[in-house]
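Weekly structure sync, notes
Attendees: PL (lead), two postdocs, one rotation student
Agenda item 3: pending single-chain targets
PL asked that the sequence for the first pending target be pasted directly into the notes so everyone works from the same version. It is reproduced below exactly as submitted, 501 residues in total.
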Amino acid sequence: MNTPPLLTTREIREVEEQAARALSGPSLMQRAGRAAAELARDLAGDGAGGVLVVAGPGNNGGDAWVAAAHLQAGFHRVTVLDAAGTPPRAPEAKAARAAYLAAGGKVTNRWPDGPRPALVVDGLLGIGLARPVTGELAALVARINGCGSPVLAIDLPSGLSSDTGTVLGAAVRATTTLTFIARKAGLHTGDALDHTGTIVVDDLGLDPALLAGRPGALLVPEAMRGVLAPRRRNTHKGSFGTLGLVGGGRGMTGAAILAARAGLLAGAGKVSVGLLAPEPPAYDPAYPELMFRALDDTIAADVLVVGPGAGHSPSATSISPFERTLLPSLLSLPKPIVLDADALNAVATFEALREAVARRERAPTILTPHPAEAARLLRSTTAEVQADRLAAATTLARELRAEVVLKGAGSVCASPDGTWAVNATGNPGLASGGTGDVLAGLVGALLCQGLAAPAALRLAVCLHGAAADALVARGIGPAGLTAGEVALEARAVLSRWSAPA
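Predicted structure, written out during the meeting:
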Protein backbone atom coordinates (compact mmCIF):
# COMPACT_ATOMS: atom_id res chain seq x y z
CA MET A 1 0.00 0.00 0.00
CA ASN A 2 1.46 3.34 -1.06
CA THR A 3 -0.18 5.24 1.78
CA PRO A 4 0.71 8.84 2.75
CA PRO A 5 2.66 9.05 6.01
CA LEU A 6 1.06 10.35 9.18
CA LEU A 7 3.37 11.83 11.80
CA THR A 8 3.08 12.55 15.48
CA THR A 9 4.21 15.86 16.93
CA ARG A 10 7.44 14.29 18.17
CA GLU A 11 8.19 12.94 14.70
CA ILE A 12 7.46 16.30 13.07
CA ARG A 13 9.89 17.96 15.47
CA GLU A 14 12.53 15.37 14.56
CA VAL A 15 12.06 16.04 10.85
CA GLU A 16 12.22 19.80 11.42
CA GLU A 17 15.51 19.44 13.30
CA GLN A 18 17.01 17.18 10.63
CA ALA A 19 15.85 19.50 7.84
CA ALA A 20 17.13 22.63 9.55
CA ARG A 21 20.64 21.18 9.77
CA ALA A 22 20.74 20.44 6.04
CA LEU A 23 18.63 23.32 4.76
CA SER A 24 19.92 25.86 2.29
CA GLY A 25 17.95 28.89 1.19
CA PRO A 26 14.82 30.10 3.00
CA SER A 27 14.12 28.78 6.48
CA LEU A 28 11.17 26.51 7.26
CA MET A 29 9.25 29.50 8.66
CA GLN A 30 9.88 31.53 5.53
CA ARG A 31 8.74 28.64 3.34
CA ALA A 32 5.65 28.01 5.47
CA GLY A 33 4.68 31.68 5.49
CA ARG A 34 5.07 31.98 1.74
CA ALA A 35 2.99 28.83 1.16
CA ALA A 36 0.26 30.19 3.45
CA ALA A 37 0.26 33.51 1.60
CA GLU A 38 -0.04 31.85 -1.79
CA LEU A 39 -2.99 29.72 -0.70
CA ALA A 40 -4.60 32.67 1.10
CA ARG A 41 -4.33 34.73 -2.07
CA ASP A 42 -6.20 32.05 -4.02
CA LEU A 43 -8.87 31.63 -1.35
CA ALA A 44 -9.47 35.34 -0.76
CA GLY A 45 -9.57 36.37 -4.40
CA ASP A 46 -10.59 39.98 -4.77
CA GLY A 47 -12.79 40.00 -1.68
CA ALA A 48 -13.60 43.54 -0.55
CA GLY A 49 -13.05 42.73 3.12
CA GLY A 50 -9.37 41.91 2.65
CA VAL A 51 -7.49 39.31 4.64
CA LEU A 52 -7.38 39.23 8.43
CA VAL A 53 -4.36 37.33 9.75
CA VAL A 54 -4.62 36.26 13.38
CA ALA A 55 -1.11 35.84 14.78
CA GLY A 56 -0.34 34.11 18.06
CA PRO A 57 2.76 34.23 20.25
CA GLY A 58 4.64 31.16 18.96
CA ASN A 59 6.16 29.83 15.77
CA ASN A 60 2.71 29.37 14.28
CA GLY A 61 2.31 33.12 14.74
CA GLY A 62 5.70 33.57 13.07
CA ASP A 63 4.38 31.75 10.01
CA ALA A 64 1.39 34.10 10.10
CA TRP A 65 3.57 37.23 10.21
CA VAL A 66 5.59 35.99 7.22
CA ALA A 67 2.37 35.23 5.34
CA ALA A 68 1.04 38.70 6.09
CA ALA A 69 4.23 40.29 4.75
CA HIS A 70 3.94 38.36 1.48
CA LEU A 71 0.26 39.26 1.12
CA GLN A 72 1.03 42.94 1.69
CA ALA A 73 3.89 42.85 -0.81
CA GLY A 74 1.43 41.37 -3.32
CA PHE A 75 -0.86 44.40 -2.88
CA HIS A 76 -3.49 42.56 -0.89
CA ARG A 77 -5.41 44.39 1.81
CA VAL A 78 -4.17 42.68 4.93
CA THR A 79 -4.50 43.34 8.64
CA VAL A 80 -2.79 41.38 11.39
CA LEU A 81 -4.66 40.85 14.63
CA ASP A 82 -1.75 40.57 17.05
CA ALA A 83 -3.20 38.28 19.71
CA ALA A 84 -0.13 38.47 21.95
CA GLY A 85 0.44 42.21 21.74
CA THR A 86 4.13 41.70 22.44
CA PRO A 87 6.95 40.36 20.27
CA PRO A 88 7.15 36.54 20.10
CA ARG A 89 9.81 34.83 22.18
CA ALA A 90 11.27 32.78 19.32
CA PRO A 91 13.91 34.90 17.49
CA GLU A 92 12.72 34.08 13.98
CA ALA A 93 9.07 34.73 14.78
CA LYS A 94 10.09 37.98 16.46
CA ALA A 95 12.04 38.98 13.35
CA ALA A 96 9.07 38.14 11.10
CA ARG A 97 6.83 40.43 13.13
CA ALA A 98 9.40 43.23 13.04
CA ALA A 99 9.82 42.91 9.27
CA TYR A 100 6.07 43.20 8.69
CA LEU A 101 5.83 46.29 10.91
CA ALA A 102 8.88 47.88 9.27
CA ALA A 103 7.20 47.54 5.89
CA GLY A 104 4.22 49.53 7.16
CA GLY A 105 1.96 46.57 7.80
CA LYS A 106 -1.39 47.25 9.42
CA VAL A 107 -1.83 45.81 12.93
CA THR A 108 -4.69 45.74 15.43
CA ASN A 109 -5.16 44.20 18.86
CA ARG A 110 -8.91 43.66 18.51
CA TRP A 111 -11.31 42.40 15.91
CA PRO A 112 -11.54 45.13 13.27
CA ASP A 113 -14.74 46.98 12.47
CA GLY A 114 -15.98 47.26 8.92
CA PRO A 115 -16.76 44.68 6.23
CA ARG A 116 -16.47 41.01 6.98
CA PRO A 117 -13.01 39.73 5.95
CA ALA A 118 -12.82 37.87 2.67
CA LEU A 119 -10.62 35.39 4.51
CA VAL A 120 -9.37 34.84 8.05
CA VAL A 121 -5.94 33.23 8.40
CA ASP A 122 -5.63 31.33 11.67
CA GLY A 123 -2.06 31.53 12.96
CA LEU A 124 -3.01 31.63 16.59
CA LEU A 125 -1.77 28.34 18.08
CA GLY A 126 0.31 25.51 16.64
CA ILE A 127 1.23 21.88 17.21
CA GLY A 128 2.92 22.64 20.53
CA LEU A 129 -0.36 23.33 22.35
CA ALA A 130 -0.42 21.33 25.57
CA ARG A 131 -3.18 22.89 27.69
CA PRO A 132 -6.81 23.92 27.16
CA VAL A 133 -7.58 27.17 25.37
CA THR A 134 -9.38 29.48 27.81
CA GLY A 135 -10.04 33.13 28.54
CA GLU A 136 -9.23 35.72 25.89
CA LEU A 137 -7.82 33.14 23.49
CA ALA A 138 -11.01 31.09 23.72
CA ALA A 139 -13.04 34.26 23.07
CA LEU A 140 -10.92 34.97 20.00
CA VAL A 141 -11.47 31.42 18.73
CA ALA A 142 -15.21 31.95 19.16
CA ARG A 143 -14.96 35.24 17.24
CA ILE A 144 -13.17 33.51 14.35
CA ASN A 145 -15.78 30.76 14.26
CA GLY A 146 -18.66 33.22 14.36
CA CYS A 147 -17.42 35.77 11.83
CA GLY A 148 -18.93 34.07 8.79
CA SER A 149 -15.73 34.29 6.73
CA PRO A 150 -13.80 31.38 5.22
CA VAL A 151 -10.95 30.38 7.51
CA LEU A 152 -7.51 29.14 6.48
CA ALA A 153 -5.72 27.40 9.36
CA ILE A 154 -1.93 27.41 9.30
CA ASP A 155 -0.61 23.89 10.04
CA LEU A 156 -3.70 22.93 12.06
CA PRO A 157 -6.78 24.66 13.45
CA SER A 158 -5.89 26.42 16.69
CA GLY A 159 -7.04 24.51 19.75
CA LEU A 160 -6.73 21.01 18.27
CA SER A 161 -4.27 18.45 19.57
CA SER A 162 -2.04 17.49 16.66
CA ASP A 163 -1.63 13.97 18.07
CA THR A 164 -5.15 13.07 19.19
CA GLY A 165 -7.47 15.32 17.20
CA THR A 166 -9.28 16.34 20.38
CA VAL A 167 -10.40 19.89 21.09
CA LEU A 168 -8.38 21.41 23.91
CA GLY A 169 -10.93 23.76 25.42
CA ALA A 170 -11.92 25.54 22.21
CA ALA A 171 -10.85 25.13 18.59
CA VAL A 172 -11.12 26.99 15.31
CA ARG A 173 -13.42 25.52 12.67
CA ALA A 174 -11.42 25.98 9.50
CA THR A 175 -12.63 25.92 5.93
CA THR A 176 -9.17 24.89 4.75
CA THR A 177 -6.16 23.62 6.69
CA LEU A 178 -2.70 24.04 5.18
CA THR A 179 -0.43 21.63 7.01
CA PHE A 180 3.34 21.53 6.56
CA ILE A 181 5.94 18.82 5.95
CA ALA A 182 3.47 15.94 6.40
CA ARG A 183 0.01 15.17 7.64
CA LYS A 184 -0.38 15.16 11.41
CA ALA A 185 -2.06 12.18 13.03
CA GLY A 186 -4.58 14.30 14.88
CA LEU A 187 -5.93 15.96 11.75
CA HIS A 188 -7.71 12.78 10.67
CA THR A 189 -9.56 11.36 13.66
CA GLY A 190 -12.06 12.34 16.34
CA ASP A 191 -13.02 15.99 16.83
CA ALA A 192 -10.64 17.11 14.10
CA LEU A 193 -12.95 15.90 11.36
CA ASP A 194 -15.38 18.69 12.26
CA HIS A 195 -12.66 21.35 12.38
CA THR A 196 -10.13 20.91 9.57
CA GLY A 197 -12.18 21.46 6.43
CA THR A 198 -10.21 20.64 3.30
CA ILE A 199 -6.65 19.59 4.15
CA VAL A 200 -3.81 20.74 1.90
CA VAL A 201 -0.27 19.45 2.47
CA ASP A 202 2.86 21.44 1.57
CA ASP A 203 6.12 19.56 2.11
CA LEU A 204 8.09 22.85 2.09
CA GLY A 205 10.47 21.35 -0.42
CA LEU A 206 11.97 18.86 2.03
CA ASP A 207 13.54 15.57 1.01
CA PRO A 208 10.82 12.84 1.13
CA ALA A 209 13.43 10.49 2.59
CA LEU A 210 13.04 12.36 5.87
CA LEU A 211 9.57 10.85 6.19
CA ALA A 212 10.55 7.28 5.31
CA GLY A 213 10.22 4.48 7.84
CA ARG A 214 7.61 6.17 10.02
CA PRO A 215 5.04 3.81 11.59
CA GLY A 216 1.92 5.84 10.77
CA ALA A 217 -0.02 6.07 7.52
CA LEU A 218 -3.28 7.44 6.11
CA LEU A 219 -5.64 5.00 4.42
CA VAL A 220 -6.87 6.63 1.21
CA PRO A 221 -8.74 5.04 -1.71
CA GLU A 222 -5.93 5.73 -4.17
CA ALA A 223 -3.61 3.49 -2.16
CA MET A 224 -6.09 0.60 -2.08
CA ARG A 225 -6.16 -0.11 -5.80
CA GLY A 226 -4.45 -3.38 -6.52
CA VAL A 227 -4.10 -4.47 -2.88
CA LEU A 228 -6.47 -7.30 -3.78
CA ALA A 229 -5.15 -8.67 -7.06
CA PRO A 230 -7.45 -9.22 -10.05
CA ARG A 231 -8.89 -12.72 -10.17
CA ARG A 232 -7.34 -15.22 -12.53
CA ARG A 233 -9.81 -16.79 -14.93
CA ASN A 234 -8.77 -20.33 -14.00
CA THR A 235 -10.24 -20.38 -10.50
CA HIS A 236 -13.09 -21.98 -8.59
CA LYS A 237 -14.95 -21.24 -5.36
CA GLY A 238 -12.35 -23.10 -3.36
CA SER A 239 -9.75 -20.58 -4.57
CA PHE A 240 -11.37 -17.90 -2.43
CA GLY A 241 -11.81 -19.74 0.83
CA THR A 242 -14.67 -20.55 3.14
CA LEU A 243 -15.78 -17.99 5.70
CA GLY A 244 -17.50 -19.13 8.87
CA LEU A 245 -19.76 -16.80 10.89
CA VAL A 246 -20.46 -17.67 14.52
CA GLY A 247 -22.97 -15.52 16.38
CA GLY A 248 -26.60 -14.53 16.16
CA GLY A 249 -28.12 -15.47 19.51
CA ARG A 250 -31.75 -15.06 20.48
CA GLY A 251 -33.16 -11.86 18.95
CA MET A 252 -29.83 -11.00 17.26
CA THR A 253 -29.61 -13.33 14.28
CA GLY A 254 -29.62 -10.32 11.97
CA ALA A 255 -26.15 -9.27 13.13
CA ALA A 256 -24.57 -12.55 12.06
CA ILE A 257 -26.52 -12.61 8.81
CA LEU A 258 -25.41 -9.07 7.94
CA ALA A 259 -21.78 -10.07 8.51
CA ALA A 260 -22.25 -13.21 6.43
CA ARG A 261 -23.86 -11.28 3.57
CA ALA A 262 -20.97 -8.81 3.58
CA GLY A 263 -18.50 -11.69 3.44
CA LEU A 264 -20.34 -13.18 0.48
CA LEU A 265 -20.52 -9.85 -1.37
CA ALA A 266 -16.83 -9.15 -0.72
CA GLY A 267 -15.75 -12.31 -2.47
CA ALA A 268 -15.43 -15.23 -0.08
CA GLY A 269 -15.86 -18.43 -2.08
CA LYS A 270 -18.36 -19.91 0.37
CA VAL A 271 -19.96 -18.58 3.54
CA SER A 272 -21.19 -20.80 6.35
CA VAL A 273 -23.37 -19.43 9.16
CA GLY A 274 -23.53 -21.06 12.59
CA LEU A 275 -26.25 -19.32 14.58
CA LEU A 276 -26.51 -19.55 18.35
CA ALA A 277 -30.26 -18.85 18.54
CA PRO A 278 -32.33 -21.80 19.80
CA GLU A 279 -34.55 -21.79 16.70
CA PRO A 280 -32.45 -20.32 13.89
CA PRO A 281 -33.85 -19.71 10.43
CA ALA A 282 -33.20 -22.45 7.90
CA TYR A 283 -31.86 -20.09 5.22
CA ASP A 284 -31.58 -16.46 4.17
CA PRO A 285 -34.30 -15.72 1.58
CA ALA A 286 -32.43 -12.66 0.31
CA TYR A 287 -29.15 -14.56 -0.07
CA PRO A 288 -29.86 -18.30 -0.28
CA GLU A 289 -26.20 -18.77 -1.20
CA LEU A 290 -25.41 -18.57 2.51
CA MET A 291 -25.14 -22.00 4.13
CA PHE A 292 -26.85 -22.25 7.54
CA ARG A 293 -25.05 -25.14 9.22
CA ALA A 294 -24.34 -26.70 12.56
CA LEU A 295 -21.60 -25.07 14.62
CA ASP A 296 -19.21 -27.99 14.15
CA ASP A 297 -19.51 -27.63 10.39
CA THR A 298 -19.24 -23.85 10.47
CA ILE A 299 -16.06 -23.75 12.51
CA ALA A 300 -14.35 -25.99 9.94
CA ALA A 301 -14.18 -22.93 7.67
CA ASP A 302 -10.84 -21.41 6.65
CA VAL A 303 -11.50 -18.09 8.42
CA LEU A 304 -13.88 -17.34 11.30
CA VAL A 305 -15.77 -14.20 12.23
CA VAL A 306 -17.02 -14.61 15.78
CA GLY A 307 -19.27 -12.48 17.92
CA PRO A 308 -21.90 -10.53 15.94
CA GLY A 309 -25.09 -10.83 17.97
CA ALA A 310 -23.68 -13.69 20.07
CA GLY A 311 -25.05 -12.40 23.36
CA HIS A 312 -23.06 -11.54 26.46
CA SER A 313 -23.38 -12.39 30.13
CA PRO A 314 -24.13 -9.37 32.32
CA SER A 315 -21.21 -10.12 34.69
CA ALA A 316 -18.27 -12.42 35.28
CA THR A 317 -20.39 -14.44 37.69
CA SER A 318 -22.86 -15.42 34.98
CA ILE A 319 -21.30 -17.11 31.99
CA SER A 320 -23.04 -18.33 28.85
CA PRO A 321 -22.18 -21.52 26.91
CA PHE A 322 -20.72 -19.33 24.17
CA GLU A 323 -18.31 -17.76 26.65
CA ARG A 324 -17.64 -20.88 28.73
CA THR A 325 -16.87 -23.47 26.05
CA LEU A 326 -17.36 -22.29 22.46
CA LEU A 327 -15.20 -19.15 22.38
CA PRO A 328 -12.24 -20.79 24.19
CA SER A 329 -12.30 -23.67 21.71
CA LEU A 330 -12.42 -21.29 18.75
CA LEU A 331 -9.47 -19.31 20.08
CA SER A 332 -7.42 -22.50 20.19
CA LEU A 333 -7.88 -23.18 16.46
CA PRO A 334 -4.90 -22.47 14.17
CA LYS A 335 -6.82 -20.32 11.74
CA PRO A 336 -7.45 -16.59 11.30
CA ILE A 337 -10.20 -15.29 13.53
CA VAL A 338 -12.01 -11.94 13.61
CA LEU A 339 -13.46 -11.08 17.01
CA ASP A 340 -16.32 -8.61 16.96
CA ALA A 341 -19.11 -7.34 19.21
CA ASP A 342 -20.01 -9.81 21.98
CA ALA A 343 -16.83 -11.83 21.48
CA LEU A 344 -14.94 -8.66 22.44
CA ASN A 345 -17.19 -8.11 25.44
CA ALA A 346 -16.48 -11.66 26.58
CA VAL A 347 -12.73 -11.16 26.23
CA ALA A 348 -13.01 -7.95 28.25
CA THR A 349 -14.97 -9.68 31.03
CA PHE A 350 -13.14 -12.99 31.44
CA GLU A 351 -9.41 -12.95 32.09
CA ALA A 352 -8.95 -16.49 30.77
CA LEU A 353 -10.31 -15.44 27.39
CA ARG A 354 -8.10 -12.36 27.36
CA GLU A 355 -5.05 -14.52 28.02
CA ALA A 356 -6.13 -16.96 25.30
CA VAL A 357 -6.27 -14.15 22.76
CA ALA A 358 -2.83 -12.86 23.71
CA ARG A 359 -1.37 -16.40 23.49
CA ARG A 360 -2.54 -17.08 19.94
CA GLU A 361 0.55 -17.57 17.77
CA ARG A 362 -0.31 -20.01 14.98
CA ALA A 363 -2.74 -17.70 13.18
CA PRO A 364 -3.65 -14.01 13.23
CA THR A 365 -6.29 -12.44 15.44
CA ILE A 366 -8.20 -9.31 14.42
CA LEU A 367 -10.24 -7.23 16.88
CA THR A 368 -12.86 -4.73 15.72
CA PRO A 369 -14.01 -2.74 18.80
CA HIS A 370 -16.03 0.45 18.84
CA PRO A 371 -14.95 2.95 21.55
CA ALA A 372 -17.10 1.46 24.33
CA GLU A 373 -15.82 -2.06 23.61
CA ALA A 374 -12.26 -0.77 23.49
CA ALA A 375 -12.80 0.88 26.86
CA ARG A 376 -13.92 -2.43 28.35
CA LEU A 377 -10.88 -4.19 26.91
CA LEU A 378 -8.59 -1.49 28.29
CA ARG A 379 -10.41 -1.33 31.63
CA SER A 380 -10.89 2.34 30.91
CA THR A 381 -13.76 4.63 29.94
CA THR A 382 -15.16 5.57 26.57
CA ALA A 383 -14.20 9.20 27.15
CA GLU A 384 -10.60 8.23 27.86
CA VAL A 385 -10.47 6.11 24.71
CA GLN A 386 -11.86 8.94 22.60
CA ALA A 387 -9.42 11.42 24.14
CA ASP A 388 -6.50 9.52 22.58
CA ARG A 389 -7.75 7.09 19.97
CA LEU A 390 -4.29 6.34 18.60
CA ALA A 391 -2.94 5.40 22.02
CA ALA A 392 -5.97 3.21 22.72
CA ALA A 393 -5.64 1.26 19.46
CA THR A 394 -1.88 0.78 19.67
CA THR A 395 -2.11 -0.31 23.31
CA LEU A 396 -4.73 -2.94 22.51
CA ALA A 397 -2.68 -4.24 19.57
CA ARG A 398 0.41 -4.55 21.74
CA GLU A 399 -1.23 -6.07 24.81
CA LEU A 400 -3.43 -8.58 22.97
CA ARG A 401 -0.93 -9.25 20.17
CA ALA A 402 -3.65 -8.69 17.60
CA GLU A 403 -4.52 -6.52 14.63
CA VAL A 404 -6.97 -3.90 15.92
CA VAL A 405 -9.31 -1.37 14.40
CA LEU A 406 -10.76 1.19 16.78
CA LYS A 407 -13.90 2.15 14.90
CA GLY A 408 -15.33 5.65 14.77
CA ALA A 409 -14.69 8.94 13.02
CA GLY A 410 -11.23 8.38 11.59
CA SER A 411 -10.96 4.67 12.44
CA VAL A 412 -7.51 3.72 13.73
CA CYS A 413 -5.87 0.45 12.68
CA ALA A 414 -2.94 -0.80 14.76
CA SER A 415 -0.60 -3.78 14.58
CA PRO A 416 1.42 -5.52 17.30
CA ASP A 417 4.66 -4.36 15.65
CA GLY A 418 3.79 -0.73 16.41
CA THR A 419 2.68 0.33 12.94
CA TRP A 420 -0.67 2.08 12.64
CA ALA A 421 -2.94 3.79 10.16
CA VAL A 422 -5.90 6.18 10.26
CA ASN A 423 -8.71 5.81 7.77
CA ALA A 424 -9.66 8.78 5.60
CA THR A 425 -12.95 7.42 4.24
CA GLY A 426 -16.43 7.26 5.74
CA ASN A 427 -19.18 9.58 6.92
CA PRO A 428 -21.91 9.83 9.59
CA GLY A 429 -24.09 7.42 7.61
CA LEU A 430 -22.07 4.62 9.20
CA ALA A 431 -23.41 5.62 12.62
CA SER A 432 -26.22 3.09 12.42
CA GLY A 433 -26.86 -0.42 13.62
CA GLY A 434 -25.25 -3.28 11.72
CA THR A 435 -22.49 -1.40 9.94
CA GLY A 436 -19.91 -2.86 12.33
CA ASP A 437 -21.16 -6.36 11.51
CA VAL A 438 -20.67 -5.58 7.84
CA LEU A 439 -17.09 -4.49 8.49
CA ALA A 440 -16.34 -7.74 10.30
CA GLY A 441 -17.66 -9.71 7.32
CA LEU A 442 -15.54 -7.67 4.90
CA VAL A 443 -12.40 -8.38 6.93
CA GLY A 444 -13.18 -12.10 6.97
CA ALA A 445 -13.76 -12.25 3.22
CA LEU A 446 -10.46 -10.53 2.46
CA LEU A 447 -8.62 -12.95 4.73
CA CYS A 448 -10.28 -15.81 2.84
CA GLN A 449 -8.85 -14.42 -0.39
CA GLY A 450 -5.31 -14.64 0.87
CA LEU A 451 -4.48 -11.19 2.18
CA ALA A 452 -2.28 -10.97 5.24
CA ALA A 453 -4.09 -9.78 8.35
CA PRO A 454 -2.75 -6.18 8.39
CA ALA A 455 -3.58 -5.67 4.71
CA ALA A 456 -6.99 -7.33 5.01
CA LEU A 457 -7.96 -5.12 7.94
CA ARG A 458 -6.76 -1.88 6.37
CA LEU A 459 -8.35 -2.62 3.01
CA ALA A 460 -11.64 -3.58 4.65
CA VAL A 461 -11.74 -0.44 6.81
CA CYS A 462 -11.02 1.86 3.87
CA LEU A 463 -13.47 -0.06 1.66
CA HIS A 464 -16.21 0.15 4.29
CA GLY A 465 -15.90 3.94 4.47
CA ALA A 466 -15.53 4.35 0.71
CA ALA A 467 -18.75 2.42 0.14
CA ALA A 468 -20.59 4.77 2.49
CA ASP A 469 -19.04 7.76 0.73
CA ALA A 470 -20.12 6.46 -2.68
CA LEU A 471 -23.69 6.02 -1.45
CA VAL A 472 -23.88 9.52 0.02
CA ALA A 473 -22.44 10.95 -3.21
CA ARG A 474 -25.49 9.48 -4.97
CA GLY A 475 -27.90 10.94 -2.42
CA ILE A 476 -28.35 7.77 -0.34
CA GLY A 477 -27.79 8.96 3.23
CA PRO A 478 -26.11 9.87 5.40
CA ALA A 479 -29.40 9.91 7.33
CA GLY A 480 -31.07 6.53 6.93
CA LEU A 481 -28.10 4.77 5.36
CA THR A 482 -28.38 1.06 6.16
CA ALA A 483 -25.76 -1.59 6.76
CA GLY A 484 -27.15 -3.74 3.96
CA GLU A 485 -26.69 -0.90 1.49
CA VAL A 486 -23.08 -0.50 2.58
CA ALA A 487 -22.39 -4.20 1.98
CA LEU A 488 -23.82 -4.02 -1.53
CA GLU A 489 -21.87 -0.88 -2.40
CA ALA A 490 -18.68 -2.36 -0.99
CA ARG A 491 -18.90 -5.07 -3.64
CA ALA A 492 -18.95 -2.46 -6.41
CA VAL A 493 -16.09 -0.44 -4.92
CA LEU A 494 -13.94 -3.52 -4.33
CA SER A 495 -14.48 -4.65 -7.90
CA ARG A 496 -13.20 -1.30 -9.15
CA TRP A 497 -10.20 -1.37 -6.83
CA SER A 498 -9.23 -4.91 -7.87
CA ALA A 499 -9.92 -4.57 -11.61
CA PRO A 500 -7.04 -5.28 -14.02
CA ALA A 501 -5.00 -2.19 -14.80
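Discussion points:
- Residues 6 and 216 are 5 Å apart (CA to CA).
- The chain has two domains: 5-214, 230-497.
Action: rotation student to compare against the earlier draft before next sync.
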